[in-house]
Amino acid sequence: MKKQVLGIMATALLASSAMAADFTLKFSHVVSDNTPKGKAARFFETRLEELSKGKIDVQIYPSSQLYKDNAVLKAIRLDSVQMAAPSFSKFGKIVPQLALFDLPFLFKDIDHLHRVQDGDVGTKLKAMVTKKGFVALNFWDNHFKQLSSSKKALIMPDDAKGQKFRIMSSKVLEAQFHAVGANPQMMPFSEVYSGLQQGVIDGQENTNSNIYTKKFYEVQKYLTVSNHGYLGYLVVLSKKFWNKLPKNLQANVKQAMNEATQKEREYAEDLNTKQFNLIKEYATKTGKLEIITLTNEQRQAWATKVSAIYPQFHSPKKIGKDLINGALNTK
Q1: pLDDT per residue over 164-184, tens digit each?
Q2: Contact, 149 vs 254, CB < 8 A?
Q3: Cα–Cα distance between 139 and 136 in angstroms, integer?
Q4: 228 phi and psi, to 5 degrees?
């Protein structure tokens, strides 16, 4: 009986807190709750409801329950949903300058990358997105990309010559592979496994977590730990929603988002490390995959070769020399 009464009280409390909310923030994303993005979204939900003392009711819709990434930006402009975290590639036509993150070997390590995102360069990029009818909040990580192949170990840039690599739609990635004499092939992510299995493509580039969850390591002979490029997301908010919020609640949103961002980065780092260890276990057990970690000299050889493409993107309409140099010079 006591349990029943407590249950009724809890339900009543939840109902009253939902009724007490002045604003509803729907956060739509395309991955499951147990991913870094999914877990960070849940953290943001809890934290913002605490900070706003229930004035903002956050509702999370994972796994494309409401929108896929290619439709969510339009939905945010219409205020049909209030928040999303699409990958940079989804902003390609709106703010092509976000292709900065596609440039190979631009970032020394993850800390340098975060200093770029949280500093002047990141602020400029977010301002460009905000000008296009969104409120750009924070950058979230997927992680650095690695290279794989079924044809030849990728140790020096010349090893990529003549090989067919899958890329997502990006002029930068096209130029990157042309710079090493490879053939970039645009292909949807969902088709990569079968493409590798059937030899339609020889190799691909992706984060450890993508390589592991999609089992690309099973249909490749060589995996090179290159950390050459980066995959990430930008959390954006509806401008209509933002403008309705009083200043104190805007401050709550920013604080909850900053805390969630810190968590998301930790989750992404942890997941990539864990899943890379699982790939290593597979390699050791089966002997079917060779893992290569580039030495500083080898990494420098790749960086020298592919950074030759940077000037192609100096035009402000593409990425912009100031943003590229700003990233390179971020201390």
Answers
A1: 999 998 999 999 999 999 999
A2: no
A3: 9
A4: -85, -30
